[in-house]
Amino acid sequence: MKIKSLIKTAVLFTVIVLFGMKSLDGGDCVRIYGEFKLSDGEIVKGYAHTDRLDFESAENDLKRFLHYSYRDVKAIDSITIFERIDTLSAIGIKDYRQHCDFFFLASPIEKVRVIGYDDWEGGKLKNEYPCETCNQKEYLYASGGYSPAIITELDKYEIEILKQAARLNSFKTNYGELTTIHMVSLTGEYSQESLEKLYKEISINLDYPKLKMKLKELGIATFRIHWQA
Fold first, then answer.
1. Nearest 5°: phi and psi at 47?
2. Any residues with CB less than 8 A from the CB of 45 and at least 6 apart, and which?
């Protein structure tokens, strides 16, 4: 199975290179909004991600657009649909390269649907957007080279507070080589310095799930971001 997967990946990469197709760099993406008709007749409205820019193909066949590469090679067997996406405006990060405030995006897990290829018939493309809130003007659809593009580990209560415009005290720290942990004081009880001190005190003997649970009890929202090398 692993050998077949490696061969499939190698073929896809070779095809893209040989034919010079317009493709985004690794980690970049386009967010589309559409209507997705399931095989049982249900219509789900929401957002999905792709690295394709040939939107006319999406208008002709949305199902093939999301599951196949530019050269008609099937790439994935399921898609993730976000029925709701919120901008975490309370913890903006200054992007000095692009001179704008960068904000993470989040969706409550109950608003996330994973749809298998055989479980839906297709749908309609309604609109397309960048995958992040801080984009280069000359390359609208670039994302920041991080994952997840949409944070799903925050609950509805945390998202409701974090999407407010008022800035909240937060602390960011490295967690391994390419991962950062972000802690945000939801009540204003903790300063950035006290969040840092608290993290150092309680993270020594706790793995991430237990650390997150402990911080949640203290009114602190926590999430992880994985950055590309």
1. -110, 150
2. 33, 34, 35, 36, 83
How far apart (Å, rounded) are the C-alpha atoms in residues 95 and 112? Answer: 28
Q: Cα–chain-centroid distance for residue 181?
A: 15
Listed in sequence order, the residues at least 6 apart from 71 whose beta carbon sits closer than 8 Å to its beta carbon are 12, 15, 16, 19, 21
pTM metric for this prediction: 0.82
- Rounded Cα distance between 163 and 37, Å, is 30
Residues 6 or more apart whose CB falls under 8 angstroms from that of 89 comprise 103, 162, 163, 164, 165
Q: How far apart are CA 26 and CA 115, in angstroms?
A: 23
User: pLDDT per residue over 153-183, tens digit each?
Assistant: 999 999 999 999 889 999 999 988 899 999 9
